[in-house]
Amino acid sequence: MKIRIVVLLSAIALLGACAAMRNQNASDDFQQSSTTYNRMIRWDEMEAAQWAFPTEQLREEFGRRVDSAKGVKITDFRVKSTACLPEKGEATVIVEFEYYREPSYKVKTVKDVQKWKYTDENGKKIWRLTTLLPEFP
Q1: Element (H or E) spanning 128, and its range?
Q2: What angle do CA 88, 97, 103 make, to 5 degrees?
Q3: Residue 61: its H or E element
Q4: pTM
Q5: Domains of the chain, earliest start first
């Protein structure tokens, strides 16, 4: 009887450890995706970001936002907050982009609330952006 209890408790602990490791891997994957995305936006790689991060359903509209951002130069960005919930497969990042639109050199700030979803694509888990590139007025 005691052996069964020990085996059962060991199995429960092992399952808990596996779940914790999956959540940690998902968090690490999210951090990498989010950082790469924001750096791409910062360094004028919006078109490449369009194909790498948004969900397939958003890509066309995301592309229209990229087109409307022609002439926008991002000077800096700040991550204001990050909330990653790997057990729910969701994350939110609030970023402020500083930018100017040529030919003006007046620097403006836009807030971007990024929503992310951890999805399964072809048997591989990947973080996808579910919100559009912000408008740069």
Answers
A1: strand 124-129
A2: 145
A3: helix 59-68
A4: 0.81
A5: 2-129 (3.10.450.50)
